[in-house]
Write a structure and sequence with these properties.
170 residues, Elongation Factor Tu (Ef-tu), domain 3, globular
Length: 170
């Protein structure tokens, strides 16, 4: 029987294209939703025998929403919009753990086209952004480290004082 797919299992991670040889991808915290949109609009030519459609190349965009936070990732993505920096993005499916320890994922490259941060009284501030994707996303398997997973959910902490920066204990 087929298993349902849950949105909570899909995590987006980003990296500047120019940093691909020196940095790991980083996760956008407090994501609420994202949506892949594939469009392929065909052109229609009228003939005396009727309309003929010609196929068009598919275009892809990624719409993202998250709760705003004061962190390096929000700043990094905002600067990517302002400076028209090319990004890499991974849509990692945490429910799709493979035998090699990697997770099923989609990988794409492109540019963020907007950065909207409406601030409404009495509500959390939400980031809304859209990314135009170059070519088509590719399916594969991605590494998602324990540290990256710890950013999603805090770990159990004992009742004794925590050494270090006051973070979680493992």
């Amino acid at each position: 029987m087929a298993e349902a797919i849950y949105g909570k299992d899909h995590i987006l991670a980003f990296r500047l294209w120019e940093d691909r040889n020196k940095k790991n991808a980083i996760k956008l915290a407090l994501q609420t939703q994202h949506s892949w949109k594939y469009e392929s609009k065909s052109d229609s030519t009228e003939t005396k025998d009727g309309a003929i459609n010609s196929p068009a190349t598919a275009t892809v965009s990624l719409d993202i929403e998250a709760v705003a936070s004061l962190d390096d990732v929000n700043t990094f993505l905002l600067n990517a919009v302002k400076q028209s920096k090319k990004l890499e993005v991974w849509d990692v499916n945490l429910a799709d753990l493979r035998e090699d320890g990697k997770y099923g994922a989609q990988y794409a490259q492109g540019y963020l086209q907007s950065w909207e941060v409406p601030a409404e009284v009495g509500k959390l501030t939400q980031i809304k952004t859209s990314m135009n994707i170059d070519q088509l996303p590719q399916d594969g398997a991605a590494t998602f480290t324990t540290d990256q997973q710890d950013e999603i959910q805090y770990a159990f902490t004992d009742t004794t004082p925590v050494a270090g920066d006051g973070g979680s204990s493992k």
